Amino acid sequence: MASLRIFCMQFALAAALLAGMARAEDAPALQGVSAEEKARVQKLIDGAKAEGAFSYWDAVIQPQSNDALVAAFRAHYGLPASFKVNYTLSATGVLVTRIEQEISAKRITIDLAGIASPSWVFERVAAGDILEYDSPEYTNYGKVFEQDLGLKGYFAFNGGYIFVPMWNSETLPNFKGTSFKDVINAVPEGRLSIGDSGKSVTYIATHFGLLSVLGKDYFAAISKMKPPLVLRSESIAARLVSGEDLMAFTGMPTRAYQFNQKGAKLKFMMPEEGVVLMPQSMFILKGSPHPNAAKLWVDFMLSEKGQTILVKHEALISGRAGFKSPIPDYAPPIESLKIIRIDWKKTPSAELIKERIEWAKLFSP
Questions:
Q1: Which residues, at least 6 apart from 243, have a Cβ–Cβ distance to it below 8 Å?
Q2: pLDDT score for 26
Q3: Which residues of the chain have pLDDT under 50?
Q4: What is the pLDDT of residue 22?
Q5: DSSP state of 82
Q6: What integer pLDDT is reported at residue 5 of this predicted model?
Q7: What are phi and psi of 124, to 5 degrees?
Q8: pLDDT score for 256
Q9: What dotted CATH number matches 164-276+344-363?
Q10: Looking at CB atoms within 10 Å, which of 184, 220, 301, 360 has the fewest?
Q11: What is the pLDDT of residue 15?
């Protein structure tokens, strides 16, 4: 009887082990790939399971979108439900400060970050603060690297976004602008909001890019419209929906999509002058406590599956070549955009800080 019990226990253990192996073999990420790639991914999966979690900070992705991404991520790699993605939604400036503090203290808790501050990210690479990882998905992001919107071996962007004039068609039904110039005096004083570049890394970067095509006199005219300064893109959209503002100079199509899904009627223009694309640079910090999981997240987010989920939920612009956007009206293919080219690699953060001072003199004297 004792020997039978031992046999049953051994059989159950072997069955459990075989079932675990089968589940790992069934992971979508391991299907239809070369033996070499399968071995690489399996090693990362095993490492991620041992790590049990990783920490990800981002300045755009909303919690509901993150939930959808995490569920698909676990399924794609056959990770257990107990595997945790500790996600934090942060303002860009706050995230920059937090990362700098962790680097300075040599105590890294953030494994991976997504942030639209390309000059700063290039500086972090130069300083040796970002882990070198050449994701196989980078082969689909050649245009991103060619335009200095990423750096092969270090970072691409999970999604890009733009700030453009936006309005509520219910409160401003007759506006038909196609140019930034059409915004001047389109609404009464105090009814055009603008992103607070004094507090936001991404707004000042957009302003810096627009200066090259619009000039300082243009922004002097905008300042005379006495625009209220608003920090969060969600708040900018909400103020349009409520009627507090009639137009936003720095509206975000992502938010238009999300609010319109709830019944709003926000519209925006793609200005004929072009747009400043803000790339959500996604990178792993050197010293990451969970590097295996972080690498898998990079691979997944840049894959066609990851990009489809992200774009569908957040209306971000994919940098993936040939990507077919599920919502092209809000998140058009990157190839269709007229992008105002900025050499972020050669634009130091100090230059943006200097421009922020000039912006503050104009908009919040």
A1: 168, 171
A2: 78
A3: 1-2, 4, 6-9, 11-24
A4: 40
A5: T
A6: 52
A7: -65, -35
A8: 96
A9: 3.40.190.10
A10: 220
A11: 43
Q: Which CATH class is domain 34-159+279-323?
A: alpha beta
Give me the DSSP letters along 134-198: --GGGGG-HHHHHTTSSBTTTBEEEEEE--EEEEETTTSTT----SGGGGTTSS-TT-EEEE-TT
pTM of the model: 0.86
The DSSP code sequence of 277-339 is -EEEEEEEBTT-S-HHHHHHHHHHHHSHHHHHHHHHHH-PBP-STT---SSTTTS--GGG--B
Say how far apart CA 185 and CA 168 lie, in whole Å: 16
pLDDT of residue 19: 40
Instruction: Show the tokens assigned to 128.
Output: 């040796």
Distance CA 261, CA 257 (A): 6
Which residues belong to CATH 3.40.190.10 in the chain? Answer: 34-159+279-323, 164-276+344-363
What contacts 219, CB < 8 A, 6 or more positions away?
207, 211, 359, 362
Q: What is the pLDDT of residue 333?
A: 93
Contact present, 178 and 269 (Cβ < 8 Å) = yes
d(CA 195, CA 235): 10
- What's the pLDDT tens digit per position in 73-102? 999 999 999 999 999 999 888 999 999 999
